[in-house]
Amino acid sequence: MRSRPILTVVGWARIDRPYYLCPVCHTGQFPADVALDIDKTDFSPGVRRMLAAVGGVAPFAQGRDQIQLPGWFRSYRENGREDRRIDRQGY
């Protein structure tokens, strides 16, 4: 079992899922990630729907304020400009 963080609509969660390695081609895969629709993303399907709904109807600054939940977003300064990123809160 391998663990990874995922952002859900109620905050960060850590999930454990099985890892399978092909003995022939040595390619690893996580079938549970595909089944849960979290393959190659840290966002749950619910969070992706929220981001799409807010992003489709509001300018960035207004949408950011609507979707901002405690601890999700933190501000960083790089090269003199503000950069908003998802914060994993220690995950």
Brief account:
The protein is an alpha+beta fold.
Describe this structure in words.
The chain has helices spanning 31-35, 45-57, 60-67; strands at 2-8, 11-17, 20-21, 28-29, 73-78, 81-86. With 91 residues, the chain is α+β, with helices and mostly antiparallel strands. The model is unreliable at 73-78 (pLDDT under 50).
- Spatial shape: elongated
Rg over alpha carbons: 16 Å
Query: How are the strands of the largest sheet arranged?
Result: 1-2
Beta strands, count: 6
Q: Mind describing the biggest β-sheet? A: 2 strands, antiparallel
Give the strand content: 25-35%
Instruction: Determine the N-to-C terminus distance.
Output: 17 Å
So how many helices? 3
Report the helical percentage: 25-40%
Mean pLDDT: 78
Order of helices and strands: EEEEHHHEE
User: Which spans of ≥5 residues are poorly predicted at pLDDT below 50?
Assistant: 73-78
What number of structural domains do the residues give? 1
Structural class: alpha+beta
